[in-house]
## 1
Amino acid sequence: MQALIALVAGLVFGVGLLLSGMANPAKVAGFLDLAGSWDPSLALVMGGAIAVALPAFTLAKKRSRAWAGCALTLPTANRIDAPLVLGSLAFGAGWGLAGYCPGPALVSLGMGSAPAGVFVLAMLAGMGAHAWLTRSRA
Amino acid sequence: MNIAWDAFTPWASLAGGALIGLSAALLILGSGRVAGISGIVGGLLKPGGPELPWRLAFLVGLIGAPLVWGLFAAPPEAQPVAGTGTLVLAGLLVGVGTRYGAGCTSGHGVCGLSRLSPRSLVATLSFMAAGFVTVYVVRHLIGG
């Protein structure tokens, strides 16, 4: 049941990305280009998403079980440290360079995009490098 | 600052965002898990465990979304902006960065901000700032 709901959630997420314009690198670049001809559309993606998700997470904080019967787990980390900031800065730089963040890259892969395929392979390599570098501490 | 009104798609972006929020709501309340794409993908690189089935199922849905979309509408516009070398560099930065930073646009930007997490706010401000600066450098300093 947990996986079935996740399948539907993944599908809805992907359709949302396609509809929003997040899966179009040129549109992402237009949003990040404050000094050029700025397309503010993607600010509305985050706004629309939070408007729907905020009540759900407010409810989720009061629950310990999900509809599927499994435990409902929310992140517990609250430290604001160097890995958080430096990692996020590196992520943002990569996002700006290619116009892909992880979700849209995977959706674009599903569209058969070769550039997205290159990006996803490199992203997996980067994630693998992190897993390897942090293996003894995990 | 010039606003590109001709490229502005407020309703599609707002509706797409609402669907993303709906997905995150469904996943946390239904499956009990946070819809953070980098965490879901990164988690697959660890061996097995009880988290594997839902993560795989979510990714099947995500990658399969264009197929389902194609049953009802023409494929949306998608214009790449980077060559192969840049894509490799960008992918590596995104892969390493989202794992050290413990999240991306979905996990921190949507779910984290919806949880009112200060940690996710710092992460979101950091990657947004880096994105703005990177595009400025590439388009206006190097690209000219």
## 2
Amino acid sequence: MNGYRHLDHPADIAMLISADSVEDLFIAGAEAWKESALESFIPESTFELHINLESISIEELLVDFLSELNFNLYARKLVYSRVKMITIKKNTLYRAEAAVYFEDFSPARHRLKNEIKAVTFHQMNIEHKNNSYSTRIIFDI
Amino acid sequence: MKINGIELLPLSETLWEIPVSGGMNVPGRIYASRNMIETSLRNDEALKQVVNVAHLPGIVKYSLAMPDIHWGYGFPIGGVAATSAKDGVISPGGVGYDINCGVRLARTSLMYEQNKNKIQKLIENLFRDIPTGVGSSGAIKKLSAQDTKKILKEGSRWAINNGYGDEEDIIYTEEDGMLAGAGPESVSARAIERGVDQSGTLGSGNHFLEVDVVEKIYDTLAAEAFGLFKGQLVLLIHTGSRGLGYQVCDDYLKLLLKEGKKFGFNLPDKQLACAPINSDEGQNYISAMNCSANFAWNNRQIIMNLAMKSMLKSFGISKEELGFKLVYDVCHNIAKLEEHLIEGKMEKVCVHRKGATRAFPPGSAGLPEAYKNIGQPVLIPGDMGRYSYIAVGGANSMDETFGTSCHGAGRLQSRHQALKEGKGRDLIKELNNKGIVIQAKGYNTIAEEMPFAYKDVSEVIDVMHNSGISTKVAKLRPVGVIKG
């Protein structure tokens, strides 16, 4: 099943994300990030940005992908809306190619909840069991 | 005693040792009461992180933890480690994402009793004049990337040169508000982009600006030197390097994970990624960290100046009547090259302080002349409903903790638990009933930061006091708070 749920954490935000495929796990991670960063979200006009990344492990690729959403929000005031398409491939490195919908931040439509300092590597370990992928993910706030 | 499978030997009432085992290079040492060990540390990963830090190449003496120790990333919060400047490493995880997060205390000549009816108005003005909350920006005129690069080199000096403070403020800021060896070329364009409009902003989470009243004096001599007296109104600011520092840490953690393999270190946690101090990677991180530290000092300097202007407006008095002076500004997330006594010899080491405050005793180099015989002020916030403490560097701090003390209370409840506990309660009214005016961007922040979510800071302070690491000077009680 694709999705996320909150785990208890003494100071920050911990989530368990799970999905039927690695691609869907990245989408679940993006939705968990949105839930953690935004209080409310009224979607309106969106535009597409392409995110192409390479990393040495699948965990680092996931951190890098979510860090892109984080950077776009806090530095460029671009709010992640949804993933249009994502593919993950492995050659010598892990590679993600994604088309992601963003929208310009508007206080009338987007209410921010937490300032996520960073997406951390702490306790991240993508497991593939019983046709399902899952990992913990912790956002430092 | 064993906690989570880790052996702890009591060395005194307030000090515990984890003996060397496995790949540990040095023992772990934890400052804590027996109660803390048996309660708050029982279900925490922090002790394991003390053990992990002891694996760092070139670590000397001990992997230390202050009594506000809790679970962090790589290092525990409250973790302290010194590594040899000659052949040791620097680890961004030993500094944290919020580089030079720190505390600044300013004093006034005003008495709370004569001004308590004006606190509401003051908090409204402070909340309007100082941007708070998630991604807060726009406190001062719009800066360019070039301006930001100047801040990265000049630190507090930039604020003073641009009309946000007095020359004297520099003297009362750790390192004069500017670390040398800060090359903006080591900071990514992304980090600059993330911080370019955040100078003079408080941010969110546990960052705050507080108006406090000095409730109790413990050390008359030190209080006098710091200009503190009972009943006085003071200002406490807690924030750091904002998005710029977060991005610098993120950038270098990723770089060291990717490039660090060539160093051949075998570390138990990815977030302890590190580089030899003398490598290009290590030197570049130190430069970028110093830039972030300078950005943070400039940030707190601007906030303090904006706050002073709000106070003048709110009280309708002159600057002379307000008597506004910086007591001290000290950081609690940093790594600094310092000289310490290692096996009978003075050696240069890189002291990582992550959620730990420098606490130099009397006579130490680098203290303002007025505090030379007293020691360095150690600023330790508690929670917004109870109290904070001002302490002073103690006689044992250099020998035992590389001149370091604790930095705060530490959380008792997760944010999620605190939100649940606050549900259905009028928390603003509860604080008002205790004589505390609060303004925050969101109600959830208030719930997450309520006193019930934090440990009692006095237990933490007492461990440091009884160990002679930092001793109590004054207790502050909040009367007005702004938060993100």
